[in-house]
Amino acid sequence: MAASRIVIENCAIATVDANDTEYASGHVVVADNRIESVGAGQAPDGLENVVRRIDGTGHLVTPGLVNTHHHFYQWITRGLATDHNLFNWLVALYPTWARIDEPMARAAARGSLAMMARGGVTTAMDHHYVYPQGSGDLSGAIIGAASETGVRFTLARGSMDRGTSDGGLPPDFAVESLDGALAATEATIDKYHDASFDAMTQIAVAPCSPFSVSTELLKQGAELARRKGVRLHTHGSETMEEEGFCKELFGMGPTDYFESTGWLGQDVWMAHCVHMNDTDIAAFARTGTGVAHCPSSNARLAAGIARVPDMLKAGVPVGLGVDGTASNESGELHTELRNALLINRLGAHREAALNARQALRLGTYGGAQVLGRAEEIGSIEAGKLADLVLWKLDTIAHSSIADPVIALVFGAAAPVTLSLVNGRTVVEDNHLTTVDEDAIARSARDEARRLARIAAQD
């Protein structure tokens, strides 16, 4: 059967390939779920079976955005504990999170995914680690929501086995046993992980953090991931308090602790990594360990400014993350392009910290690297998967900015005229085509109220 083709023409293009190739006016041809060609000027003549031809005048095409860290369930606990640091925020919210169930997880995932997809995310991930006893099939609910929305998705199947009675932060009711967490994680991999080139669903092994999991869960989790051939994800070096916690309990800082448990390597990425010294950064670079940079959440929780310019200079793979919407209420990744650039300029490198094209690379190719999918997504190149975004830049918000990449990153959030995932339309004229946005909003609101009532009764 002949390939069905979509042609986008007359648009600016930022390919984010190895040479940062850009076209002031060019074309992209999609054949089924692959990028067939990209270049300057009009698309080639004589293309067969063109099912759609789009005039991209006034637009910029980029690779789809790749989110590398999130907690979907937090969508129904937004706007709480707004003046807390990380540890106090966790203590304030864990009792509520410990009461989530399957309908809540589904509604929260649908809300989180819809907000990201509408803002240009084509590959999402969720680090879900709260599995209260008797809460239902939370992983299945989250994966189902991603499939319904139509985005490419990685579920980082999280776990916690260190409750309050063992010196951890989460309530005992919200943690699993060591064996139970490992067995459930392996079952999730067996049921859902797809290792193929154009996979829509993948699974990672993701114990939550040093202060909520045992050393044995980290060690055996790493062994499980490598036996199954999947990636590893966790939180690392997010706050100064975490560093003190690790030194008190384990006699070493977070990076050395992670290395001692098998948690550095090309198949590992960690969220935040705010408090990294030169030795830590060198260890990440030496081992190829990736970082999910979450600038808005880091600011919201007063965690600090991650040393992203130094990480990039050392060769550390870095992508962007929304983080949970209880610490980044907007829930959008495209705003993180701007915030990553601005917040890093408050650090030691000041105006030389990041530029617009580096920020765009973090949100696209950098994210693909971190998720282990840089051969498939993250840049606009022939043969790669057709995950693309067409940004509208000819409105009043951007009309006087000549450089389209600078307009996208420095300017106001740009409307998404078209978003393709695997060659399928997910967003059209700034609205989702796959799901009912109003129904998602109603469901999330209802489940948030139900969770608040349940938490208030405890």
Draw up the topology in text.
Layout: E1 5-14, E2 22-31, E3 34-40, E4 50-55, E5 59-63, E6 65-66, H1 86-97, H2 102-118, E7 121-128, H3 138-149, E8 152-159, H4 178-192, E9 201-207, H5 215-228, E10 231-236, H6 240-250, H7 254-260, E11 268-272, H8 278-287, E12 290-293, H9 295-300, H10 308-314, E13 318-320, H11 334-344, H12 356-370, E14 388-392, H13 404-410, E15 416-421, E16 424-428, E17 431-432, H14 437-457
Parallel strand pairs: 1-4, 1-5, 6-7, 7-8, 8-9, 9-10, 10-11, 11-12, 12-13
Antiparallel strand pairs: 1-2, 2-3, 5-14, 14-15, 15-16, 16-17
Could you walk me through the main structural features you see in this protein, from its secondary elements to its overall organization?
With about 450 residues, this protein is α/β, with parallel strands linked by helices. The protein contains 14 helices and 17 strands. The longest helix is centred in the last third of the chain and has 21 residues, at about 435-455. The radius of gyration is 21 Å and the shape is globular. The model has no long low-confidence stretch (mean pLDDT about 95).
